[in-house]
Amino acid sequence: MARSVFARPAVRRSAWHRPYIAWLLLLDFLSALAATRTAIALLDTADAGFHDPTAPGGVDELFALVANIGLPAGWLVLLAAWGAYDRRALGLGTEELKRVVRATVAMAAAVSFLALGFKKDLSRMTVVVVILALVVYTLAGRFVARTVLRRLRHSGRHASQRMLLVGKLSDALALYEVASRNPAAGLQPIAIHLPSHPQRGEEVDAPVPVYVGWDLVPLVQQIGADTIAVCGPASLESYELRRLAWQLEGTGLGLVVVPQVTDVTGPRIHVRPVEGLPLLNVEEPTISGVSLLAKQVLDRVTAFFGLLLLSPVLAVIAAAIKITDPGPVMFRQTRIGHQGEAFKVWKFRTMYTDAEERLAALQDQNESDGLLFKMKDDPRVTPIGKYLRAYSLDELPQLINVLVGQMSLVGPRPLPTEDDDYQGDVRRRLLVRPGITGLWQISGRSDLTWDDAVRLDLHYVDNWSLTYDIGILWRTVSVVLARRGAY
Questions:
Q1: Sheet strands (E) in 232-362
Q2: Fewer C-beta within 10 Å: the chain N or C terminus?
Q3: Full-prediction pTM beyond 0.90?
Q4: What is the pLDDT of residues 96-114, one digit of tens each?
Q5: Range(s) of the domain holding residue 115
């Protein structure tokens, strides 16, 4: 008997997201319930007319029904409608948070229209308090859920996509390295499938099992994967990729394709279909215009108030440096900034005053493979300097550089080198102002290789936006507190 084209093989389906989504549903329901309780407490106290307990006709009962069931249920429906439970957006990045905010706007509009349609005297303050409490509680709940999910992924428990990497060994290993370096992303490569047998004498060295010549769907079934990741443009022919997508329909398996154009994301990429052929349009990076002006204004305003609020902390650090080690409190060094212009960077001094003279004797112990000198146990660092470096407190005076327009809050780190050292692709770092923090800092800092650091900086230059900056600033806090890669 001929096999039906609609028959689906029994495969392993990804299941980690199901209990996670169930917890999100509970947290979002409780958030909506807490939002109504907060509004009642605040507005009843202020006598803002949230509801009138003396009104006839059982208004209290109707309000209780809406507050305890209607609004939470409606909130879950709106979140689902905006894709806030889509597993592709959960646990990483800003897409999940964007969808929550969009659902919040929809909720505000829905409440306003319902109040108008039913001619209910609902004060504007009521709507504002409920909506603000709703978004704050929901985002807080999602943050807690993300924290738990990331800890599960770091501990090695199955809360990730188990991926079969399909493609040339070099492309597959590149994706394996990225996924292994970022376990919080939820991508766990468990095997590699090569498109062809290695040539005679060619060694295949991989950290996971390597397969050749298998049908992909049966192989996925055997190894217990739930996602196929096609790595690189030469992995599969276009018709093979289309046929694979057809085979995966209805199986619950995921399909990830790593495009040829890498390190380009966000609004720069647009898909335009022409005669059934999808064309991937890659726009030029936006490094000028209104967004850049807004970034500069935000940088300087934040730097001004940051210096004002942190002045007691800066004074304490300066006193500690002066008391524990003779010499200047500040260290100023020439760095290369925007468009190759040199400037003096401000930092708290963390080394002994003869650090530059002792550098030559330590060059053979350099642990960096790029333009910087890095050494975990650098004997030139003072005791107080080790503490300041661990929590990046020595970087706080760079708010002065931000205030005068030489640096930004977010951007590639300024390097102590000459302008002529920036050759080839590395020179693209100079298209934007250097930053106090950046992708380099939140992705491993000193633990990264020079090539990885450059790749991250170039990715930022090509894809920067105000939203991207805010996300990096948010992640910087957790990285600094965890002291990852700081020495």
A1: 254-258, 269-274, 277-282, 330-336, 342-348
A2: N
A3: no
A4: 888 888 898 888 887 777 6
A5: 17-154
